[in-house]
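Review form for a predicted model. The reviewer records the input and the model, then writes brief findings.
Reviewer: anonymous (R2)
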Amino acid sequence: MPFADFIGTWEGEGVGGYPTLDADFPFRERIVIADYGKPVLQFSSESWSVDDGRPLARQSGFWRPTSATELEVVLVVASGFAEILYGGLVSGPAGVHVELATDVVARTVTAKEVTAERRMYAVRAGKLMYAVDMAAVGHELAPHLSAALDRVSG
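Model under review:
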């Protein structure tokens, strides 16, 4: 499986921010990418505040490889939106990584407006590293989240 390097349970710290926030914020996160015997990987993420331990965000979905290098992703986010992203494995100067871009975002009537995301995931030196850019509440794509997580199992 071309996405096998991403399988595992990953934990660590990251930093978030957005143009609508006064300051960046640190967070802890656990991401699980699991092979459950289908040609689909299960994806889940939960994060919480470093400062006081309160829950921050949760998302769940599936990475669906469509070829050796292409990927479609379906995610549901607890804050009230769902999205479909497309992309795949890309070779760069530092190695292979996953790049994804939003195709569709749907939201509940009470959720904040999120119109697009761009995500990058890479495994480097035993860490799952990622960055998320988000377009929301009238802003264009801007850096939102990044983290370097240690593999704790898998």
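Findings: The beta strands are 8-16, 25-35, 41-49, 55-65, 70-77, 81-92, 95-107, 114-124, 127-136, 142-153.
Further findings: The CA atoms of residues 95 and 122 lie 8 Å apart.
Recommendation: see findings above.
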